[in-house]
From TrEMBL, chains A, B:
This is Histidine--tRNA ligase. It catalyses: tRNA(His) + L-histidine + ATP = L-histidyl-tRNA(His) + AMP + diphosphate + H(+). Gene3D superfamilies: Anticodon-binding domain, Bira Bifunctional Protein, Domain 2. Belongs to the class-II aminoacyl-tRNA synthetase family. One of its GO terms (cellular component) is cytoplasm. The keyword Ligase applies. Its EC number is 6.1.1.21. Keywords: Aminoacyl-tRNA synthetase, ATP-binding, Cytoplasm, Ligase, Nucleotide-binding, Protein biosynthesis. L-histidine binds at residues 102-104, 132, 146, 150, 296, 300-301. GO terms for molecular function: ATP binding; histidine-tRNA ligase activity.
Amino acid sequence: MAQKPSIPKGTRDFSPLEVEKRTYIIEIIKQQFKLFGFQPIETPSFENSDTLMGKYGEEGDRLIFKILNSGDYLSKIDDALYTAKDSLKMTSKISEKALRYDLTVPFARYVVQHQNEIDFPFKRYQIQPVWRADRPQKGRFREFYQCDADVVGSNSLLQEVEFIQLYDRIFTQLGLDGVTIKMNNRKILSGIAEVIGASDKLIDFTVALDKLDKIGEAGVKKEMMEKGISETTIQKVQPLFNFEGTNDEKIAQLKKLLQDSEEGSAGVEELAYITSFIKTMPLTTATLTLDVTLARGLNYYTGAIFEVAAPDTVKMGSVGGGGRYDDLTGIFGLKNISGVGVSFGLDRIYLVLEELGLFPQTVTATSKALFINFGDKESLYALQTIERLRVEGITVELYPDSAKMKKQMGYADKRSIPFVILAGTKEIEGENFTVKNMQSGVQETLNFSELKAILTQ
Amino acid sequence: MAQKPSIPKGTRDFSPLEVEKRTYIIEIIKQQFKLFGFQPIETPSFENSDTLMGKYGEEGDRLIFKILNSGDYLSKIDDALYTAKDSLKMTSKISEKALRYDLTVPFARYVVQHQNEIDFPFKRYQIQPVWRADRPQKGRFREFYQCDADVVGSNSLLQEVEFIQLYDRIFTQLGLDGVTIKMNNRKILSGIAEVIGASDKLIDFTVALDKLDKIGEAGVKKEMMEKGISETTIQKVQPLFNFEGTNDEKIAQLKKLLQDSEEGSAGVEELAYITSFIKTMPLTTATLTLDVTLARGLNYYTGAIFEVAAPDTVKMGSVGGGGRYDDLTGIFGLKNISGVGVSFGLDRIYLVLEELGLFPQTVTATSKALFINFGDKESLYALQTIERLRVEGITVELYPDSAKMKKQMGYADKRSIPFVILAGTKEIEGENFTVKNMQSGVQETLNFSELKAILTQ
């Protein structure tokens, strides 16, 4: 019996229309990456296991897909280890390669490996799939694309300014007006923890604060107290719970709040620098907002932290994120290379554009016209015309078999091909074409240049 | 100590320029696939193992990369099996997924799985990486792209005609004039074996004949005799060893040679049909040649067989191949769906274009101009100008740090950025820009529209 075909859970087939829509998004992202001076690189789908393992924490290690060694991989395992039958210990013996888990670690590896060929600062973008053995659920897949742009080798805050502009331009180009670019700074968070005397509880404190819009002020305070942060301490940061106003007003408040923390003040300076540039060069459709509750990626970001929220009209998590990390390549032996980067969430952007009906009508996976197949002689006339149209960049097809008219028309209809061209003996003699508009049903006889004109409309 | 970074053997990092060159080729292929009415699909990088295993022969099974199950994968293995320590038997117990080996089997799986959403005939293209645990060697990699276009659900030979045109158009667009599209037909080969009474030795016979251009007439005859084909038998196909002339002349010879074989005659008819169309619609730069020694993919092709040879000026194997297979989807339970398709060899095409210097100069991974960074005030002026240029589609960068002039100029030079823009206090006052042509060394002062003009040249 034949197999019933299926695909692994958490993976997807993409139909022609889905590929076209994804390509539409990717091309806009790519085009803007390039305009901003980022250069593409690509890395292998799988890396040596020791490149990836230990870089994403214990949970990450577990979620990395491992590739089984080829050949008689069991023969090299000594009996003691084999007898233990311990999956965890066995893995490193029977698997030396693993599918990449993100684009950041492979990028760090690339930079170190090719440091002599690279001119720093190096602005690179990378758009490739990554794989995670996560439990699949709505909107979470085991294979998905990441779209990353990073700069390594420059401490300049102008990079942050340009990344904010880049977010604005990409979402504007996608027609997704009204996104909010939230910005915070790791130094602000450290500074707050410092001035309230809770530096040792930085993570607990920020994780709780991060939930403000979900569980509210009372909820956050309750969680902080549960983590052992005293009520008096929490009192000191009361302004953070009603942190409103313009970016300038927020900066003024923070300046006061953090005046006794050197690190915190440095963070405020950074925010002030970045926002002053953006004030002079206003964003097109996005809004930049300081959000001190933002604690995304706190374990590796050391400076700016970004998160982009979709317009309020759609219920969707962040559609982008990013930040600065001071020591990207240290793990591979190249010290003191600062990096800053952003990432775009392809799958979520897709869902948002779909929900808001923002994919242009021109994004289709169909041809502009179908020639009806009346037989060999007529097909030759059709193919000759098709060749001339293709040279003009017009996508036209000939129905491959001289099937019943009804079948051929039905095919055009089902595939939403807008025009059907009938060219039989009469048309061949007259060197013209009977063209049917499939939507209006109107049929007219046209010569080649009229045909070309109607198909390029 | 830090790890010395490396990548698995047989895989590659692609630098910015390499990505741009690969993208250049892929975009031309894609554009023509679309113009010819093919629609894109994408399938997951890994499939369920039973989708792939057993489809490529024993050797193929061995070369498929298997993915280790997650979690405590050893716990489910019964003791008897475990004690045997047999890698081959163990594999199916600890691995349920595998990286795709080609695009054809996943496509067949896709067609069957989505048959109710597909309007047949279905013209699809697919450009994605595949993985093979082959021994890496020059030009052979463990991860590489395939670029396939196939039609399923039509027996019409007009598909073959269009594929020949497609080959011609793509190689013409790539500037690779003078490729030879070799065409044969499985029915011709069967017919020959039939008329010489060696049907049972079809594979041996064709495998030997396929080597004609490598080992010559004597060599082929020797190999045939070693395989037990008699000298008298070989005598009967003497014309094949000096098979020359126009396609029409070759067809006339074949017609005579195969007159007593029904299958062979059908093959001749097919060749005659296809070549008659191509004669009426001449190819642009490619040449179509009948080549009865061509036996590529004989184990699955059932009709036309194609192979594209690079121009004689470069030493390179085939840069494309394809053919018709009568029962693509049968393995997954959908019978009688004929398919015909072609494939483009990205890596080899890349090498040929490189060798012949055919990549256009416009294929670069650099920016059009670099603004020198003189400090914050000047950077603002630069960024405002850069924003206006980017809107016009011009790639311009600001050097991120106000480093020494020599360092900034050196960066532009190393990255082959053609123009450097100097905008200091004087330029800001005059609302203009000092622009240095990095190649000629010429420096001039331009206003914005003059700057725009020079950067769009």
